[in-house]
User: What shape does this take?
Amino acid sequence: MRAKAKGLGWMVLTALLVAGLNVAQAATREKIKVSVATLGDQTGKGLAIKATDSITQIFFQLKYFTVLERDRLDQIMKEMSQQQTDLVDQSTAVSLGKQMGAQIIVVGNVNGADYGVEKYKCVKVDSQGNKYNAICARANAIVKMNIRMVQVETGEIIFSDVLVGSHIQDYDPAGPPPSGPGMIDIAMAKASRDLYKPIQKAFPLEGIVLKKEGQFIWVDLGSDWGIQKGRGMIIYKGQGQEIRHPVSGEVVGYEREEVAKDQASDVTPTMCKMKVSKKEANRIEAGDPVQAKLELFY
Assistant: This one.
């Protein structure tokens, strides 16, 4: 959750959505352990494994997660006589996550997977630029997945939503339509992509300034953490002021002052470099927190 406030530059309110994970991970360089349970399949089309692989791939691409072996989780489920379709139960998900040693567990179901074709009247243009009436054909696939991400230690549901992906493809009405299973696979991949933003918002990729040399800033985030040349980076001034809940007194976030915003240039496995203005560089010190902007991969 972010908010803007007046003062010296923009002030950003960063919520600690998962206790200690974002700041602590940056300090210890330990990746977040996530377990993706085999999804249930309510479609009868045998999509459980493909859907699970599609969701798992999102965490692999984000780099700062360690994806735990699914075979071990499946074995635990068998020992508990637990069916995948029951994984919407929050307490069961937490129990499975603890036995796996995971910090985050992802569970869910494939709710729908439909494929259809249609022919319709349309207008086309010939090589001379003349319009004429014709028959066109289109194939359409849509996939729906109910996905939940659960923080194992607290049992908090970090994300819960129905992901919907669709794929439309025109084809020659005189020939065969596109493959139904192939179209469904593409729609499933598109649905999975909707996880990129909520995952990165719940677990912002954060590091610190290692050193400053003139206008050049080195940050302890590199290619091992998914950073590539051109990735946007935001530098804040110090940890920021604590923001506490008025009733519980719990620290729910920090009010941070944004000092600089630019892109990573030189990138190594363990760090990257960025160039800022002289004015910005004068306010930056080693140890200042840095947050990478969201990466979408598409």
About this structure: The domain at 11-17+203-292 is CATH 2.40.10.410 (Thrombin, subunit H).
